[in-house]
Amino acid sequence: MTMKKAPSTSIPAAACGGGLYLPVLLALFFLALAPGGRAFQQFQPSRCSRRRRVVVSAAMEPGDVSGRTYDLAVIGGGPVGVSAALLAASKGASVVLIDAPRASGALMNEATGEDLSLGGPTGLFSKALRASVKRISVGSLKGMGLRDDSIWNEIVTSCVELASFNARDALRQLDYAGVSYVKGHAAFADSGGPSSLIVTPDSSSGGQLVSGIATLTAKRTLIATGSTPFRPGGIPFDGRRIFDSDSINTLSRLPKSVAITGSGIIAIEFAKIFKNLGSDVTLIIRDSIPRNALMKIGLDKDIAGMLVADLARSGIKVERGAQVKKFNVPRDNDKAPVVLDLEARNGGERPTGAATTIKCDIYLAAVGRKPNTANLNLAAAGIRTDEFGGIVVDSRLRSTARGGNVYAAGDVLGRPFLASTGTAQGFAAVEGMLEEEKKLAVEALEGVEADTMDEHQPSTFEDRYDPKNLASNPFAFPIGVWTSPEAAYYGLSMQQCKELGINAGEGVALYAECLRGLVFSPNGLLKLVFDKDNGQIMGVHICGDDACELIHYGMELVKAERTIDDVLSNLYSAVTFHEMYRIAAMAAVDEAGARKRRAAAGRALTARNSGISQE
After folding, report:
1. Which of 159, 216, 237, 606 is found 20 to 30 A from 524 (Cα to Cα)?
2. Where is each FAD/NAD(P)-binding domain found (predicted)?
């Protein structure tokens, strides 16, 4: 069978979604813009670049930009907004970035009142928390007799340091590029059309009180306001004992016990984080088969099974086929437990309707996210949203705004809610704006009536980041699950191959089959899914240490239509995780030999663990 070539993709951001990658991304970006660099030679600024510089230590007040006209206004200060603003500024555009304060769940420096969310992805707190847990040995600190509050203060301090570095670096980059950075709430004006924006000040900006409402004009606007947690009805969120995946950032102490509802990436990430912090964790999953819940988000069945098994091995209690029916939250006693009344659903561990209770210090609802489009006054600009609140855009990421000058990118469009795809969409939107601007300029010079681009006109701008196709395209981007162990995948699974009529096979390598894996991460695996008719690799699935890094080599194998024979012909450095690619390819052509190798690896792992226990 001849497979169609996987769609060519090029995502210019770190593709495992989130993390403190932005300083590196921006550093590389501006290195390309240095005099003599390729990107620097591709444009000529249309006007003098001596713009007013932003004070790095604080945002501008809305009044400072009132009455001004900009080539581009970017609404939203996450990685999508910041990266897009920097790209547009590098092309010679005058840019204002308007960033609303994170009123709920912002990662703050309490000593300075500094909002550390600028430039950070959704889930910045979980990324910083996970990194801090790796840097700080909680078990060792407890063994030294440190109290939980002291340990938590140490962890939070580490989180603030990581986030502060990220935010301040973003400010420096904006300052360097000449982007006007304003802290405030932006919305489209009731009059003046889509080009008119109103900016309402925050109660504080850089620690200084501000007043007044600013009105500015933008030839183009990019909406990159991200997403907010989905909050099911009936849950008494209070930011004290009951949290969502944003407000958990305000947690002020190390909880002894945590109950989490959810079966997706966010829920599993936080379950492992709190377990590694020493908390007792209960994960409440509505699905009766936890592995199925993970497979719904695209994980291979074996990878999903490994993550579920790891939850149990870590000591996390999984309440499957259950839902919380009632919350009993103590009003004035933080030491008294929150009591959750659970009801069993069909197929769970208990008979349908059976009741049980769970006691916990805190409860976290991690049941998904939704586009953050509230309070933008989108209707005034003629911008439509879908049933989930996501902004409706065409293949060029252009919204339905009158005049066609408002674009959107990132989580505000809906799935897949990844920083990597959102940043790529932001880049694509800016490139689309510049292309349209160039077209209009040519028309004006030639005396042709200027008009906005028709979506059916040929364009050099590729539509591969169209959200209507992006989330459902397995070749669009890799997925990384930042649990411990990590999980990642790119391309098709065995089930997807079967649905497409592909005669698929798989080659599996255990981490324990290579020396590095045996020592550092013996419980992981790497799987190559391939077409048996021609050997072409159709998908790569990994669970174990550095999975979110290893997946990028697998992505290139799939995109380049490499075969099992190609992998076998390559040499891989010894004592590296990449050796597993060759081991998996060997398993694909010699399953009997693979079974023997896995059995030997299992015996070696047993001997290793026995030796460790005797020590």
Report:
1. 159
2. 70-426
Q: What is the pLDDT of residue 126?
A: 74
CB atoms within 10 A of CB 392: 15
For residues 527 and 302, the answer to whether their CB atoms sit within 8 Å is: yes
What does the pLDDT average to over 554-559?
96
Tell me what pLDDT residue 202 has. Answer: 66
Amino acid 454 reads D
Between the alpha carbon of residue 431 and those of residues 73, 208, 214, 332, 444, the distances in Å are 15, 36, 28, 54, 20
Name the residue among 525, 564, 509, 127 with its Cα closest to residue 299. 525
Residue 468 has pLDDT above 70, yes or no: no
Label residue 526 by pLDDT band (50, 70, 90).
very high
Cα 555 to the chain's mean position, in Å?
Answer: 18
The C-alpha R_g of the chain, in whole angstroms, comes to 26
50-54, 104-108, 332-336, 604-608: segment of lowest average pLDDT: 50-54
SS3 606: helix
- Phi–psi pair at 403, nearest 5 degrees: 95, -15
* pLDDT 10s digits, 171-196: 899 999 999 999 889 999 988 788 89
| 479 residue type, one letter | I
DSSP alpha helix (H) spans, 13-78: 22-32, 38-41
Flag whether the pTM goes above 0.70: yes
E strands along 422-524, which residues? 479-481, 487-491, 504-510
Alpha-carbon distance of 491 to 474, in angstroms, equals 5
Cross-strand bridge partners of residue 508: 527
CA distances, 558 to each of 9, 500, 569 (Å) = 11, 16, 16
Residue 519: predicted pLDDT: 86
Cα dihedral 379, 382, 385, 387, rounded to 10, equals: 70
Condensed to tens digits (0 to 9), the pLDDT of residues 44-68 reads: 333 333 333 333 345 666 656 777 8
Average pLDDT estimate for 379-398: 92
Which domains, from first to last, does the chain contain? 63-122+154-229+370-452+461-470 (3.50.50.60), 242-367 (3.50.50.60), 485-614 (3.30.390.30)
CA gap 35, 42 in Å, rounded:
11
Separation between Cα atoms, residue 546 and residue 557, nearest integer Å = 18
Asked if 221 and 194 count as a contact pair (C-beta separation under 8 A), the reply is yes
The pairing of strands 180-188 and 227-229 is unpaired
Q: Please report where in the chains the tokens 């962890």 appear, as a residue.
A: 155
Q: Kindly report the number of other CB atoms within 10 A of residue 357's CB atom.
A: 11
